[in-house]
Amino acid sequence: MCGRVIVDYDENLGVAEGGALSEWMVGRPDGYAPSWDLKPTQPIPVAFTDRRDGSRRFEYAHWSLVPPWSKELRSRFPTFNARAETAAEKPSFRPSLQSRRCVVPVSGFYEWTGPKSARVPHAIFGPEPVLPLAGLYTWWHEPGAADDAGWHLTATILTRSSAGVMEPLHDRMPVFLGEELLRDWLDPQTLGDQLLVNAVAESSLPISERLREYAVRPLRGDGPELIEPA
Q1: How far is CA 93 from the centre of its chain?
Q2: CB of 156 within 8 A of CB of 64?
Q3: Residue 94 and residue 91: Cα distance in Å, rounded?
Q4: pLDDT at residue 1 above 80?
Q5: Catalytic residues
Q6: Is residue 116 assigned to a domain?
Q7: Which of 25, 51, 106, 116 counts the most CB atoms within 10 A of its CB?
Q8: In a domain, 123, yes or no
Q9: Structural domain boundaries, residue 87
Q10: What is the pTM of this model?
Q11: Which residue pairs from 205-209 have beta carbons closer than 8 angstroms and sit at least 24 positions apart in sequence?
Q12: How confident is the model over 197-219, as pLDDT tens digits?
């Protein structure tokens, strides 16, 4: 699973020059504020392509995907993660997979090990300053609001079975998006089906071998000290 992330972009966002994601991450998103302990239901940065005009967008979304038919900005079950193996089958995720896919660019994330009485958090970082996670998004509209108002962008992060550095830490890990599939993933004209999800999930494997992780102290508050080694 992926339930806590780190978002700490430097001025040039740390995106490699010429990398596909740099075409979406132009400047920091409006309202940018770094966080070293960003949680579900809080605003999380997402990059996506607008289906209406093909524009590239980089902005904050409510971290937990809310289906359009929901009567409130929440779901009856957790939707901050979506399993890659079943996203194409689930009514909440299937429409977004078809043409509303996004990237969640993070600086890192956390996972815990050990017994429930003594859980140890681990900070995990990718081979580059920005780690692209495959996600899905939807637009949720407040019931009763005017058509041109009351819209909320919501998003979820795909997960898959762990591999590489993640295997000793947890049985699930985020789907890391390889450079070779990033443009296809962000193209709403590319049909989103299980074959696409499988390909993207496989692109995680080389990245999972290049992650680095270390134990940190229990997460309290929100600041750069949270990623200091324990």
Answers
A1: 14
A2: yes
A3: 5
A4: no
A5: 2, 111
A6: no
A7: 106
A8: no
A9: 5-106+128-160+179-202
A10: 0.95
A11: 205/163, 205/164, 206/178, 207/126, 207/127, 207/131, 207/164, 207/176, 207/178, 208/162, 208/163, 208/164, 208/165, 208/166, 208/173, 208/176, 209/163, 209/164, 209/165
A12: 999 999 999 999 999 999 999 99
Tokens of 103: 């990237």
Give the domain CATH number at 154: 3.90.1680.10
Tell the residue number behind the tokens 């400047």, with chain if given. 27
Q: What is the pLDDT of residues 2-16, one digit of tens each?
A: 899 999 998 766 454
Q: What is the DSSP letter of 94?
A: H
- The answer to whether position 120 is within a domain reads no
Establish if 94 belongs to a structural domain.
Answer: yes
The contacts of residue 79 (CB under 8 Å, 6+ apart) are 64, 65, 66, 92, 156
Q: Which of 204, 63, 205, 215 is nearest to 124 (CA)?
A: 215
Look-up of token digits 């780190």: 6
pLDDT band at 144 (very low <50, low <70, confident <90, very high): confident
Domain total for the chain?
1
Looking at the DSSP assignment, which residues form a beta bridge with residue 125?
212
Pairing of strands 5-7, 35-38: antiparallel
